[in-house]
Amino acid sequence: MPSRASGNDAARTAAGPDVPARNGDISFWMAPFADTPAGPALDGDLEADVAIVGAGYTGLWTAYYLAERDPSLRIVVLEQHRVGYGASGRNGGWLTNSITGGHDGYAAKHGVEAVRGFQNELNATVDEVLAVCAREGIDAEAVKGGSLLVARNEAQRRRIATYVAHAEKWPEEGVVELSAAESRARVNVADTRGGLWQPHCARIHPAKLAVGLADAVRRRGVTVYEGARVTEIAVGQARTERGTVRARHVLRATEGFTTRLPGAKRDWLPLNSSMIITEPLSDAMWADIGWQGFETLEDLSHVYAYAQRTPDGRIAIGGRGTPYRWASGFDTDGLTDRATWSSLTALVREWFPAIAEVPIAHTWSGVLGVPRNWRATVQYDAVTGLGAAGGYVGTGVTATNLAGRTLADLVTGADTPITRLPWVGQRTRKWEPEPLRWLATRVIYGAYRYADRAEFRGLTRTSRVARIADVISGR
Ligand SMILES: Cc1cc2nc3c(=O)[nH]c(=O)nc-3n(C[C@H](O)[C@H](O)[C@H](O)COP(=O)(O)OP(=O)(O)OC[C@H]3O[C@@H](n4cnc5c(N)ncnc54)[C@H](O)[C@@H]3O)c2cc1C
């Protein structure tokens, strides 16, 4: 691994050693693409067969599989800024097999076998993304090392039993229990008391996947318009300030930004998630930490945090932050407040005390789409030709591929096993109006923070406050 870098030293010295050298500017992952020339701008009205709104993974995967299924289709993607501007260019890079919203809710409605099928599809989807990357020459720097979940206090250790019981019920997920020593042998996280590992996960470079995928769809004849903000979606058309695209099928892939579209304000809550990334660690630090398998990493805190090791020897970690802003407002370009980046900095140094002096290279934030029931969905109405996919909360990197394949099947009229998965056609009620939405989110996150503090101070069982917050949030 490279030794610790000294780039940005002047900026950091001026701001103090703990201040990230860069804040916002979309994300660390998107920085290499800042100077890439923009795609064509929409200039006037046009006709197409399929108009897709949003050039994140959902929109791009949908375009990719549609073009594969029927190369004669005229497909356009309309992106308000640049490819990968949203969560797809900013995420934690966990290409993992999660069912958003969990197994049990789906099982109650659709039966156990349907959920087993869903889980198997998501496991296979991790490999499908890796296979397309190989086929299309997309270097997403993928390393499939599985995913490690670590318990760092007694209450967390006791929660492992709940996960083991869940794993016995849903063996397709592939989760196995690890002793403290086995967990530390993978990644030496301070205070580790036990762990869980599952194999269906790869770390990736998020923006390289998004940008590489956009190139792949362009090679298949799809036009990706950038700087084309859609102001309204209606049957047969997507309107922008610079022209209207008329199409038999109009598919919405706008995730956390959906709230800005007319009629969709309370559909998906735009929840923020924030990240920091360190400068590269020294070889000695890596010798202490291990992490040779490039597992994605999280702990069992109620306030969720997720991390990965990058191939150039950095640690990227995300989570804690200002989760939600009044009236679904959110920052643009990823600017992140001090409380958030300092909390993430403290956390990564708690996990790995040896890196206390390693500077933080960059911090940024992005927005997730959260449905009221916390379950993602793929929707398509064959009569109107309107469709949508999203609501992945923090688990869309893999699910967007399955959603894109499913939308492609639905639009082309193919009745396949994936068009019958439990998330297809699923609807949920709208979020509460303000000020309830803002208040509830603050109370819930305050409760999770309180519960984590109590457990780290010695509470040996899961805090009741966290259980109540789970019930209120519907998580
Ligand atoms: C910080 C962070 C960390 C995350 N970590 C992980 C992780 O490790 N693993 C995981 O599985 N998931 C993670 N997620 C979630 C994951 O990134 C998303 O679920 C996924 O990228 C969603 O892809 P998408 O294409 O649906 O949405 P987005 O990537 O948000 O794309 C939507 C696109 O639509 C465009 N758009 C919006 N409105 C309009 C409009 N009106 N007109 C035109 N274009 C419009 C936007 O500019 C954007 O480019 C994370 C998210 C964040 C923010």
TrEMBL record:
One of its GO terms (cellular component) is cytoplasm. It holds the Pfam family DAO. Residues 49-410 form the FAD dependent oxidoreductase domain. This is Glycine/D-amino acid oxidase-like deaminating enzyme. It comes from Microcella putealis.
